[in-house]
Model the fold of this input.
Amino acid sequence: MDNEIYSHERRHSHKVPVLGVEIAPFRIPFHRRLETFAILQWTLTFLIGGFGLTFFSLYLLFTSYYWVSFLAYTWIIIDRWTPSQGGRRFSWSRRWKIWEHMRNFFPVELHKTADLDPNQNYIIAFHPHGILAVGAFIHFGTEATGFSKLFPGIKPSLLILRGWFFFPFLRDYVMIAGLCDSSKNSVDYLLSKNGVGNAACLVIGGARETLDMEPGKHRVLLNRRKGFIKKAMEHGASLVPVYSFGESDIYDSTCNVPGSKMRKLQEFLMQFTGFSLPIFHGRGIFNYTMGIIPYRRHINTVVGKPIPVVKNSNPTRTEVEDVHSIYVDALKALFDEHKTKYGVSENISLEII
Done:
């Protein structure tokens, strides 16, 4: 029914000849407006929330509300270790209705292939990053796709760049969803000092992977990403490969080849900010042609079978590479087994870079 409604919207939209913009119809179901609002707030949070709130807090220093900023930055100092010690999650915030509207916007679905034993700990490795890592947040930062029902007894903690936790106000907003920083200390805490049934959820390609992303391409940055393998071995945590079909298709983006001037500029800026600056666009609030909102394209995330890892507190490079090879093969097998179910041609292979 939702697809029929979306097709109806597109058929009844009209184009502005001069600008070439396809305008969204005025009369559409109210729940579609709620879905657009839900994804808009997350997009703005992800893209400009941190720096926007930082500039706002600096502005407040020159007003009669200077004490708000003073308290915010004092709190960051006092609370600086929390993001690497399990965060500050609240179950009620993970069940907000807004996350269900965000899920329905695309929609996003989570598919289980095997059980996860709640008496063990895991590193869930998510691929690919995409622009917003929408699938990773909805699955592991909310209950919109029913993670706790599919995997009872498992507590997922999505790990993100430590820089997010230096932004005033925003840091606490993301922590209540169970997000933690992606430092080594944070992974160590989750896998050794937080009991069992923990899943440290990592988006393996990270910010750099967005620079190699292209719609219709299935390319993941993994060849040099071995830190998560070493951590799994140090703690004896099972590795869980996850592939999100459609994650790279929700925006139109430009992949600048390594060595190009634009790519060098992007990599230079990423070294200083920790954030990548890919060139991309989606749709707008009231149009289907241009804007920062992602397109309504189905995302299907498949959780693979856990790969048992023998505990080794001091693995050698060769041992890490051996387990990494096993992981890469498992990810490829997961991709090949499910690709045709979710619109990928049989002759398409997963590209590992």
Remarks:
- The chain is about 40% helix and 15% strand.
- The chain has one domain: 2-344.
- The longest strand covers residues 238-245.
